[in-house]
Q: What sequence folds into this?
């Protein structure tokens, strides 16, 4: 499993009801169901990802987060995960509202474009950054709303969300070295937040 | 590969000693059921997959009865290497209660009066249909079917089975079904029934004794229903405005367009295999179906459910559109039941569930394969 998913998995309390928005092949949910006794439910739009989940027994619903989450009732889940999916949605604020409507807690992870490496690439080369956390070129990526740690925290404030916990990531998706916490927006390649409304 | 020659068998599942107790409080005996099976039941009786048919289906789901060109209604789904793989699964399909293809229904003789039941046949529910399905599986030595699968009314039975018998059904595959018909759905069925019941040969349902059949009404009912099973796009592709003979319209009221000829054929061929009273009862059972009507009972039933559920809809199905499927998904998810849902792209409307739509078959195959790997003892499948 990807290092950042492993970190997310350890933030989920055993036995939780978990909804994973943009769950991909279901790696996180499969691990949560198997190792942490969770009830997992995925949401995906990609045909291949849906197929992979069904083939491995991860319950998955074909739905587009950009259309809201009408399939899920208020407070139906303990935890709603939005892992590396936020930059790909059309209306990030709506996604945050919907996830905190259907779940008590939200876990959001995203690549930090404020990290020094993408910043330098843009500043020095004048080209959109391509890094380990942002591996696709500007015309290939599905990310349309890239942001920095500072941007995200501003949106969370504007949306009246309480940020309960923040973990900083290195370029490999593992925990960033402690010194990153001095200048997170410059030194962390990504971040994971636990939040609630 | 296709299933080879098969035969329909029959069993008396409920008799005077142990009659079928219906939701309405009425009892029914005897209840004879026609069924077919494909594949082999394993030693642990753990590999049974029950196919629940829709409004006008029958027990003959796969294979043939002597003429290999005339095959069962779900032949593309059932067979060696097909999604319902008969090399692995023991597939069972029974004609529904109230049907007219070998199972007790309104055209059967009421032992109390010696006359065909007609409209004196008791009204029944989807739950009653499931009672009979469960009777069939037990008769075949299966206590816990691996899965139940069906489209439309068949999907309703698979869903109801999962709700009614926690711990019994491994998985339910619910294809283009509904947990609550819309006003438009009921309206279409109402017009079909009006066509049947206003046929002068309907005779209040006692047409058998009168030696007639309400063929005109039944054919119209079928024709109208058939339009709702296709999409506008599939009709445009299939017929367009093409004429039956040549390029010059005949300019009259006889069949002239190809679509008219097709509908007439659909109506006529339906008469050979279907009974008008069965049509009334089996369409009515769908109108009244509402498993999630009571929120308290729903919470209880869904929370107790142990089956894995796969819900499938088709994007061009306007008879039971995706909103119906999503309603089922929403209700199951609200009470913590794990559910998978796919909306499959297909131009063929409601009929898609009967057709070989690759993405649909692939999804069903992957789901059943995984359920079997998890729930069938390894030794039994080896």
A:
């Amino acid at each position: 499993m990807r290092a950042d998913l492993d970190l997310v998995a350890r933030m989920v309390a055993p036995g939780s009801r978990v909804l994973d928005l943009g769950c991909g092949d279901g790696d996180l949910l499969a691990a949560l169901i198997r190792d942490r006794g969770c009830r997992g439910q995925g949401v995906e739009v990609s045909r291949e990802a849906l197929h992979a989940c069904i083939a491995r027994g991860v319950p998955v619903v074909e739905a587009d987060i950009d259309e809201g989450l009408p399939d899920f009732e208020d407070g139906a889940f303990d935890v709603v995960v939005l892992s590396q999916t936020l930059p790909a949605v059309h209306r990030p604020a709506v996604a945050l509202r919907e996830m905190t409507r259907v779940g008590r807690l939200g876990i959001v992870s995203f690549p930090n474009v404020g990290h020094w490496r993408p910043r330098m690439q843009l500043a020095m080369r004048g080209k959109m950054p391509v890094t380990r956390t942002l591996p696709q070129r500007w015309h290939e990526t599905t990310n349309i709303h890239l942001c920095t740690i500072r941007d995200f925290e501003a949106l969370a404030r504007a949306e009246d969300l309480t940020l309960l916990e923040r973990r900083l990531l290195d370029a490999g998706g593992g925990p960033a070295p402690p010194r990153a916490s001095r200048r997170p927006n410059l030194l962390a390649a990504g971040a994971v937040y636990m939040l609630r409304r | 590969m296709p299933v080879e020659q098969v035969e329909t068998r029959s069993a008396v599942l409920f008799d005077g000693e142990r009659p079928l107790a219906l939701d309405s409080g009425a009892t029914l005996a005897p209840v004879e059921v026609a069924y077919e099976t494909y594949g082999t039941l394993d030693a642990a009786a753990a590999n049974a997959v029950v196919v629940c048919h829709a409004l006008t289906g029958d027990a003959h789901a796969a294979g043939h009865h002597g003429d290999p060109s005339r095959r069962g209604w779900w032949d593309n789904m059932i067979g060696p290497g097909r999604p319902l793989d008969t090399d692995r699964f023991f597939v069972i399909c029974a004609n529904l209660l109230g049907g007219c293809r070998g199972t007790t229904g309104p055209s059967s003789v009421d032992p109390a009066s010696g006359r065909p039941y007609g409209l004196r046949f008791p009204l029944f529910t989807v739950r009653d249909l499931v009672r009979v399905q469960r009777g069939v599986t037990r008769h075949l030595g299966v206590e816990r079917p691996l899965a139940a699968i069906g489209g439309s009314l068949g999907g309703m039975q698979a869903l109801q089975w999962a709700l009614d018998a926690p711990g019994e059904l491994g998985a339910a595959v619910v294809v283009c079904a509904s947990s609550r018909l819309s006003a438009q759905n009921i309206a279409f069925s109402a017009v079909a029934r009006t066509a049947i019941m206003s046929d002068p040969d309907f005779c209040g349902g006692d047409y058998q004794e009168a030696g007639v059949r309400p063929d005109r009404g039944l054919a119209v009912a079928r024709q109208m229903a058939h339009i709702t099973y296709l999409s506008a796009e599939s009709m445009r592709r299939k017929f367009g405005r093409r004429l039956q003979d040549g390029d010059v319209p005949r300019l009259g009221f006889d069949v002239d367009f190809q679509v008219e000829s097709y509908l007439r054929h659909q109506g006529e061929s339906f008469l050979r295999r279907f009974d008008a009273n069965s049509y009334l009862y089996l369409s009515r059972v769908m109108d009244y179906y509402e498993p999630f009507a009571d929120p308290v009972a729903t919470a209880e039933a869904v929370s107790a459910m142990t089956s894995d559920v796969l819900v499938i809809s088709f994007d061009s199905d306007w008879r039971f559109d995706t909103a119906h499927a999503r309603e089922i998904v929403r209700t199951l998810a609200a009470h913590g039941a794990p559910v998978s849902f796919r909306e499959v792209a297909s131009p063929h409307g409601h009929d898609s569930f009967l057709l070989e739509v690759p993405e649909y078959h692939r999804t069903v195959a992957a789901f059943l394969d995984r359920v079997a790997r998890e729930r069938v003892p390894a030794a039994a499948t080896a």
Observations:
- Chain B has two domains: 9-181+288-381, 186-283.
- The CA atoms of residues 314 and 346 of chain B lie 6 Å apart.
- Residues 9-181+288-381 of chain B form a domain with the Rossmann fold fold (CATH 3.40.50.1820).
